Prior knowledge:
Elements: E1 2-3, E2 10-11, E3 14-18, E4 21-25, E5 34-35, H1 38-51, E6 56-58, H2 62-72, H3 77-83, H4 88-96, H5 103-113, E7 118-120, H6 122-125, H7 129-135, H8 140-151
Amino acid sequence: MALCELCGKTDSLQPVSIEGVQLSVCGHCSKYGQELGNNLKNKAVKKTTINIQPEWRIVDNFSEIINHTRNTKGLTIAEFSALINERESTVSKWQAGIIKPNLKQAKQLEHKLGITLLEKEMEVNNLTPGSKIKNSEFTLGDLIIKTKKRFNIQ
Ligand SMILES: [Zn+2]
């Protein structure tokens, strides 16, 4: 027994989807929502998995890191370029911040130089259906008021 998320009544609850939000509601309120069957649940899980795939991006101060690493090793741009199998012009542009290494290049640099050039895109990592609702201005309270109005629940 728990509190219905829609009317607050104590009852045995069942999960339903109301306007795309999953709620645990009493038997009376369940008719306002779409019952969540196994198929729906599986679909939701699949979607979440796609959203939390880590997305890698090049750190903002990559040019500083590359420059610093080259200086620390006491290498000229020519020597440094040879070490990492890249053109001197490419390395110069990285150091000046004109172009970013692509993901493949960044991974090779990380591997060969023992540095960190890639970071996980945190916003994407935290994106779940739940946090999406919390982050927006649309709250669960708004939804309940809206839904109550629509169905004339006192
Ligand atoms: Zn209820």
